[in-house]
Amino acid sequence: METHERQLVLDQLTSSEGRLLQLVNGLTPKQWTFRETSERWSIAENIEHLIAFEIFVARAIARAINTPAEPDKKSQSPMKDPIVLGLASTRSIRFDARKSVHPTGKWPNATKMVSELRKTRARTLAFAAVTDADLREHFFPHIVFGDLDCYQWLVVVGQHATRHALQIEQIKANPAYPLRSR
Questions:
Q1: Which residue, 74, 90, 160, 163, has most beta carbons within 10 Å?
Q2: Could you read off the pLDDT of 44-97 as tens digits, one per residue?
Q3: From CA 96, how far away is CA 28, in angstroms rounded?
């Protein structure tokens, strides 16, 4: 990973985590579990999904970098960089998450879930900060964009978290969102 790429990933991972933590700080149980509609995820479900997704991506990157490099796919990467970098700002396009990263109620306690979010992000940040793997030579498929290189997947993690932060802001702006009791 080039120095500027590493810095972009670290900045996005750090800023998206900070934004999420700020958004969930001090929520009541009713706020944590409020759903805009039965088809939409609550704040808790969004956070659980983010944890599951990040763990999925970290495992997939670990598998990919332990397989032979695929330099023949590298020519596709420059075309996909702008798409990946714009993921957070394209909320008008809905993606259906893989079933394996859907929320299941694994962490019913908000404190434990936030702690797990922090631990998961700390692992991703630590990996991104020190890896010397050639992330641009190893790929695995995105459900919409096809093969992305492992650097792009790290960008996706940050963009994905920012995208869900926007979704949480939308939930909190809903007129039916429970107000804090005084």
A1: 160
A2: 999 999 999 999 999 999 999 999 999 999 988 899 999 898 887 776 667 778
A3: 28
